[in-house]
Specification:
With about 180 residues, the protein is mainly β. The chain has helices at about 10-15, 25-45; strands at about 50-55, 60-70, 70, 75-85, 90-95, 105-110, 115-120, 120-130, 135-145, 150-155, 155-160, 165-170, 170-175. The protein folds into 2 domains: about 5-45; about 50-175, Immunoglobulin-like (Sandwich). A 5-stranded antiparallel beta sheet has the order 1-2-4-9-6, with no helix packed on it. Strands 7-8-5-11-12 form a 5-stranded antiparallel beta sheet, with no helix packed on it. The chain has a 3-stranded mixed beta sheet with strand order 3-13-10, with no helix packed on it.
């Protein structure tokens, strides 16, 4: 196309041959690579959703917490807590630190605790008597609030009445 055939305001060197814009193509490729890397990082579980089981043993019981340690905002997930008493527990209680509830929506608990209360920074769920060597499983359905990113402590303690049997320290990281 000759310069005299171009419409008014169109410069052939600038608009057709892209003179002076050699670095722009690399800038566009870099931005597109960042956007393409996000789904790949999600597939590699960088942003969470993969449950990370945590287990603690004692003479009195075994406790297994199967819950994600990294979640994205708005994610719905389930926590599984397994209690396996090695001796009968007369009044099994789970103490969940308030970090479990900060910026989270509790959708459901199965089975329901017989009573629920609060003691300082802990939510206390009573499950009553548990027989020795019989696994007791609690399922908790959650949803994270997208407005609460950061790291939250999520300790869980198992008590028999007022006697602490064990504690599990864990942290939940919420991505925006």
């Amino acid at each position: 196309m000759a310069d005299e055939d171009a419409p008014f305001g169109i410069d052939r060197a600038r608009h057709q041959e892209l003179t002076g814009r050699g670095w722009h193509v690399w800038w566009r490729r870099m931005v597109l690579s960042v956007f393409a890397a996000l789904p790949v990082l999600g597939l590699l579980n960088v942003f969470g959703q993969h449950a990370e089981p945590r287990s603690v043993q004692s003479r009195a019981a075994a406790l297994l917490i199967d819950s994600p340690a990294h979640v994205g905002g708005g994610l719905v997930f389930t926590t599984e807590i397994q209690i396996t008493p090695r001796q009968p527990l007369q009044n099994a209680r789970l103490y969940l630190e308030n970090g479990w509830f900060k910026g989270m929506t509790l959708n459901g608990i199965s089975p329901q605790p017989s009573t629920q209360s609060a003691r300082g920074p802990w939510q206390v769920w009573d499950f009553g008597q548990l027989h020795a060597d019989v696994r007791f499983t609690v399922f908790i359905a959650w949803q994270t609030d997208a407005t609460n990113p950061g790291r939250h402590p999520q300790d869980i303690a198992l008590y028999d009445g007022s006697t602490q049997l064990m504690i599990v320290h864990r942290t939940l990281t919420v991505f925006p």
